[in-house]
Amino acid sequence: MDLKRIARHVLHTQRALRRAFPGTALDAIGAAVAAGERRHSAELRVVIEGELSWDPLLAGQSPRERAVEVFATERVWDTAADNGVLLYVLMADRDVEIVADRGFNGRVTADEWQSVCVAIERRFRAGEFIAGTIEGVEALNELLAREFPAQGGGPDELPDRPMLR
To answer: How far are the Cα atoms of 27, 40, 110 from residue 114, in angstroms, in the given order?
Structure first.
């Protein structure tokens, strides 16, 4: 059991999460998602979670495992072209994960996804949460546009505005 990690999660509050990502920041991130989705036919969902609840925390759930769980519960997998992508942030761990649907298999390498995560995490370490998230969204939009170029105004299947949990 990692006591430092438990302490980070217990001490992280929803107030701190909302201070790092106020409504205006969520609007700006949502606008970056929407702008990108005009350039590609994929769907990008951003979920920012402050901390894990007790059960998953005590069970040692990793940020990656939680991201996969959120990918399912938020139904990011449920897009017509199987091209949904989740950008998941776990603030208490300062961890960023990307989970992509099967439509991306063989198209985007693990190193490409990881480079986006590393860039965001670097900005987070500098306290630049909003700028880091927007930079990550823009980098993802480049990858998504490369693999799934816009095809003339398809439906917006997932919300553009980030979800705070």
So the answer is: 25, 21, 6
Q: Which structural domain, as residue segments, surrounds residue 60?
A: 3-164
For residue 85, what are the β-bridge partners?
44, 100
pTM of the model: 0.95
CATH number at residue 94: 3.10.310.50
Residue 25, Cβ neighbours under 10 Å: how many?
18
pLDDT of residue 151: 81
The 8 Å CB, 24+ separation contacts for 97-101 are: 97/63, 97/64, 97/66, 97/67, 98/67, 98/140, 99/67, 99/68, 99/70, 99/71, 101/76, 101/77
Instruction: At 102, list the tokens.
Output: 């099967």
The closest alpha carbon to 159, from 22, 26, 63, 51, belongs to 26
- Check: CB of residue 98 under 8 Å from CB of residue 109: no
Residues 88-133 pLDDT 10s: 999 999 999 999 999 999 999 999 999 999 999 999 999 999 999 9
The widest CA-to-CA distance across the chain, in whole angstroms, is 51
Cα 32 to Cα 103: distance, rounded to the nearest angstrom:
22
Q: How many domains does the chain have?
A: 1
The predicted structure's pLDDT at residue 158 = 94
